[in-house]
Amino acid sequence: MKRRHFIKGLLGTGLITAGSCAFRVPLLSSAHATPLGSPVLIVIFQRGGCDGLNVTIPYGDPDYYALRPLAPTSIGIPAPGQGEFSAIDLTDHFGINNGLFGLHPSMASLLPIYNAQNMAILPTVHYPSPSHSHFSSQRYIESGVSKADFPGTDIDQQNGWLNRHLQAKINFPLRAIGYGNKLTQALRGNTPVQSFSSINAFNLGLSGINRQTLINDAGAIYNELPSPLNSYRELVHQSGQTLFGNLDAITAIDTNTYTVENGALYPSNRFGRNLKEIAQMIKHPNIGLEIVTIDAGGYDTHSNQGAGEPTGRLSKKLQEFSTGIAALTTDLGTRMDNVIILTMSEFGRTAKANASKGTDHGNAASWFVIGNKIQGGIYMRDQEPGGGWPGLADTNLYRGRYLASTVDYRDIFGDILNKHLAHDTSQFGTLLPGHNYNPLNLII
Predict the structure, then answer these.
(1) Which residue among 59, 247, 281, 442 has its CA within the 20 to 30 Å range from the CA of 287?
(2) Mean predicted confidence (pLDDT) in 399-412
């Protein structure tokens, strides 16, 4: 293989690092089965700013319909049982706020998970001193830091919150993968992590025989100890180890022969295919997957957003999102005992619909946490005794336009880091810098 072709293929794999550390990934020992009961975290980012008020619909708040009249006049979704494409009623398993919330009608596939109390819904998630920029909000959230705590900080210099997890657990077997054309900010940092668009695309542009030859030849080089005298040489060595270790492991997966379990039906699109591959990697005896991120874009609905009808722009995205997650949980079955799915968006949308029957950049968003060890229900912080839902009256809206936030997203991260990924809270000064962790108790 010509050197320039190899370098071009290497750059195309999405292997991203920043800085250097003493972490080494032995080529073949990194490809191993995940020990029984080991945790897996799947993070799904709904990019574009998903309209939480039409995901977790506060039909019991009369101001919702004042701000969003029913279709076709606007984008309001009817209360449960109030006509075609009405909200799906949600019983609050904690016994409060009954008759307040419904789920978007396109999300019916998630209702059995919620009713089994394996899904937590958090309709008021954001961070202090919020930005309405897609780029900035995504960067703050995925870095696990707040604009209020780090004013003026170059957010691109922050390690991602999941990479900090990997750094803190360097003595344990781990495997982290990012799905996408570039590595998500959450996985960027000192620990090398791979990203790709699909398993079959991760091949350096080589045929099977040539790829295995490269793995064998280059792997022997990268299994040698690097020179400790040059940090950049050490960094290149770590990156090479990760690349060829991952390439060696992924080569063993045949997506064409994979058979789903429990009658799972994945949507026939990229999102569905990616989730199906994730299930296959979780089940595979020679992968050892622990962390995976996946993007779901298309939520920037400034116009013609639609209400509850299945042809609406938001409806189509939410159906893809919901059916994909439902298929993944069905396919994994009892493996969901050790898997948590976290879904997030950089912000919600304006409380009031705009003149184009859409919504603009907002504040609090709806996040979901799914898994068999999740204590399901609807979670909000009390703003005052007896409170919880901040309300949509003019006097309750943040800056007069936006749903107020009651849950800091870093408390969700904290619950997962502590109860699922086994970090002691004494480590949170590094894992969640600048944040005073306040548990939500999402995980049993």
Answers:
(1) 442
(2) 96
